[in-house]
Amino acid sequence: MPVPVQMTAMEISAPGAPEVLRPVTRAVPLPTQGEVLIRVVYAGVNRPDALQRAGSYNPPAGASDLPGLECSGYIAALGPGVSEWAVGDPVCALLPGGGYAEYAVCPAAHVIRVPKWLDLKTAGCLPETCFTVWSNVVMRGGLKAGERFLVHGGSSGIGTTAIQIARALGARVFATAGSAEKCAAIEALGATAINYRLGDFVKVLQAEGGADLILDMVGGSYVARNIKALADDGRLVFIAFLEGAKAEINFAQVMMRRLTVTGSTLRPQSDAAKAAIARQLRDHVWPMLESGRLRVIHDSEFPLTEAARAHARMESSAHIGKIVLRVG
């Protein structure tokens, strides 16, 4: 597989609105020790990409300045020390950055093979979402069969994935959304939908005995309400703060009811931590995909050079499921 010297990529020309994304010609990156080069076919679009574009989520040291945290495609070249992959292998990968381009590099341990029964478009939507959901709902949140699980933003890529994984694990699932259409999509996945414009998720969960686990990406005014919605010994896991990272809560309730409040972000974690998550995805989540218990809910597809339109679609919050860029 010949690798060109240059490639097309989408660059953040300056912090700002979606229109600051512009096509540029860049040198194809070279894989270093323990890395692989991927010829990108699809790149997933995620909220952290928009945060980076706006100037509020800088890439870690050594990562590409290009946005894009997940992709699918084919191994194009191997860095020194990589023996588990071969050029031409179909893969998807969690990236430290650089997915909005025709070629991207990442640690070989963060790559997962795309089996014959999985198409590359679907595979390109999986890594960032599945790494985030599995590590926070299962590894950090400890969700078990029979528990009550609430996820906010239930119609998002994270939300639709969390609903399906939780149901596959045997949990009873509740999810919030802001329209009848989104609530219908949530119900179709087997969760109890709560339209936050018409009802109060706190009252709904309290009537059911409280949530054993809540996955929250809203923050702000939801923080104190989440505490009220938890069952005794419940766990609250934060993965984003779309409404703000500061809130006032009654910590006496945390103590008296033995609540656990935690959270994480994926991108700053060590390569070893991400590799451990990748192994769990291969062992536990890929079988869910093969059996049909988990599927990607596709919202829309845009060419790479129309990444600005993809970001506008995401930030409108009108989407249901995943937005993807077609690269190769």
TrEMBL record:
Q: Which residues form the Enoyl reductase (ER) domain?
A: 16-325
Ranges annotated as spanning the membrane: none
Q: InterPro entries, per this entry?
A: ADH-like_C, ADH-like_N, ER, GroES-like_sf, NAD(P)-bd_dom_sf, Quinone_OxRdtase_PIG3
Q: Name one GO molecular function term.
A: NADPH binding
Q: Which terms are listed as keywords in the entry?
A: NADP, Oxidoreductase
Pfam family membership, one: ADH_N
Q: Which Gene3D superfamilies does the UniProt entry name for this protein?
A: Medium-chain alcohol dehydrogenases, catalytic domain, NAD(P)-binding Rossmann-like Domain
Q: Does this entry carry the keyword Metal-binding?
A: no
Name of protein:
NAD(P)H-quinone oxidoreductase
